[in-house]
Amino acid sequence: xxxxxxxxxxxFKLSLLAVTLSSAISHVAFAxxxxxxxxxxxxxIGQAAQIDKALxxxxxxDSIESIVHADDIGQLPDDNAAEALQRLPGVSVELDQGEGRxxxxxxxxxxxxxxTINGTNVPSPESDTRAVALDILPSELVQSLxxxxxxxxxxxxxxxxGTVNVKSLSAFDHDGLFYTMSAEGSYNDNVNETSPKGxxxxxxxxxxxxxxxxxxxxxxxxxxxxDFGSDNVETGGAWEFDSGAKLEETEQRxxxxxxxxxGLGLNFDYKADANTGYYLRxxxxxxxxxxxRHASGIEFGDAIGAGESSDGEGYRELKSREETQEIQSYxxxxxxxxxxxxxxxxxxxxxxxEDTPLHIAGASFxxxxxxxxxxxxxxxxxTILAGADFYNPANFSLDEVEWEKQKTTDTExxxxxxxxxxxxxxxxxxxxxxxxxxxxxxxxxxxxxxxYEDFDSQGIADADLALSExxxxxxxxxxxxxxxxxSDSAVEALLARVNADDNYDEEESxxxxxxxxxxxxxxxxxxxxxxxxxxxxxGLRYEYTDFExxxxxxxxxxxxxxxxxxxxDNWLPGLHARYYLxxxxxxxxxxxxxxxxxxxxxxxxxxxxxxxxxxxxxxxxKPMESSNLDLGIEHYLGRxxxxxxxxxxxxxxxxVYNTDLAGTGAFTAFDEANTYANGDxxxxxxxxxxxxxxxxxxxxxxxxxLVGVNATFSDSEAEIEGLGTTRDIxxxxxxxxxxxxMVGWENDKVSLRLSTNYKSSYLSEVAAIDDKExxxxxxxxxxxxxSASYFLxxxxxxxxxxxxxxxxxxxxxxxxxRYNAQYEEYGPTYKLSFTLTNF
Length: 839
Prior knowledge:
Maltoporin, Chain A; 59% strand; 6 helices; mainly beta; disordered N terminus; single chain; 22-stranded antiparallel β-barrel; globular
């Protein structure tokens, strides 16, 4: 598909949005009428500039591609890369604490997509997934983002939904000296906190040696410290459905988070002569979270319905940790043209890491006795109803403390080259291109854990374990009464009084450690041919993968070292066609084949066999292969305008899912055997529609109006098996409807934008094959954002932004929308910024 634009699709209240925008436009128009003398003419920037640049790039692309572009003051339309991408057709994001994090393309889960920065693959800092959390990437470091949905043979084949390409700032994106500086303050309504942010970029072009304007240097930075949080209530799906819906337990959670995000980029471009150029791209991004999570829960003696009561075991918990994720990327490359030949090459190094030093992974305080007459209200938000004794810290004592530290690193090194030759084919322009790539990836995880319990045997008196010895005020919780907060420093002081070696958890520490190596060698050839109104690209890519995993298993109390190897190759043909119906209209079609390796969680070599229960990864999993068909049309409507429609179909073999093998094969005598397996086949099909337009032909002030809308309608079919039976499911993570609507207005001084993003519900987690009622689904979401900016002078701009105006929540349900698995509120966020730019 070939659509873009910072837009979002609304599902409700269009009339309210229109009235709001109309009022704002009328106010600005009136101001223009009464005081036109003070208006200055500035360079054309803003929403229309972003849209126009993106459309020009995707129009020229050989692939079906959607692009979002920074404007001439170096700003993407959102705070991080993930949130900017969600404006594109077929793209949605998964949220973390109300902020866009992982990107889903055409309804396919984030781990089924690939992310590159300046042409080199980006590893994941998290231990279990391949998905790259794009909220770690500040938008100020990015010049453009694109999602390629039909891969040509010269691209890495490891994506089913699409490949996200991140391009950082180049000095040659501007003429001469450019700089911008911005300061921002944001306010989160949920925690009533204000947070600072600062960013900037500078670039210039120099003449060195005998060349003229042949060296470009660009640098960018961004820093933000954000205080925010959320209120949560969740059951984890602990419902009994045998005789009506009865709840077994519920838990209230309060999150307090300080998130520090820092990014640096330094890029060099050198043009040795008219036919030779070199570049160096560097990027460093750090994402640091300090999180305190308080929990308060009840396990009912008998499962009950809303409004019913029972005795119950009460508990309170604390989690306190600091986690730092880093991504660094270095890419050096060049291109040289010799006659009809073009040689290009690139060396890339990327490293991602996640470091969580010693922290309280869980401090649990249990009620000294059962609490009577406890209940809950509402099956959707099952907050606790209890007497005063449940809120008295004297009635709880410290039961267990989990103390952990973890370090994950993921490193990729690659070398690639491409050689192309232009030639004449019976009077038509043509090009043959071939090349190869060598990639070496290493991912390792090191977890150490301690479990402190039985404190009386370690010289700690019962009086020292009462919750009243660890409290620090009350938790600020917006959904219900909560009770006392737990002091992390008080818990740490207690742990210092006992011997850590006596509490070391060898099982948890060894089973979760692993080292994985994934070596990929690839080669391809492709031919491009221009035949009158046709452009045809045909080619073949070959990828050989050698995978090795080392770890530790535990079998009935005995540790076992494990080492597994798996190798395979994939032949991946492709055919692209583009037909020009006219100067502004083109039809695109593509048949592509792609391959995606399973997640690291699924491939993990560790296992635990304990009697008749087992859990283990599966390093022998096959990769997922997909044959893809795309067909569509796009028509360009002058500057900043386009309309398009694309249909797509994906036939996926060997998709991966979690399953329980108990009762089958070697696990006939087991009650539980949780692992991962390859399914047979799955299908995904859908339609993407997109329209964007600047209404420049309308009379003033309406000639400043911009409209963008896109919608993706898709479906999927898959079959899983286990326990001697099968059932049909949708692919996890696949939303059937995704859309955006953006209504904007701008002139030389003012820019306004009201946008809505919608994503329908999707299957999040599959329960046991015979327990469909406990499948977990994420409910649909609609987010409404508003932004406005005003040029005080030609080079000074003030901006306001309001995010999540409707206070949309995150809701996961069990089988039916009525039954909670997780509910979370974040509140709206308001931002005010000042930007000074020279361009």
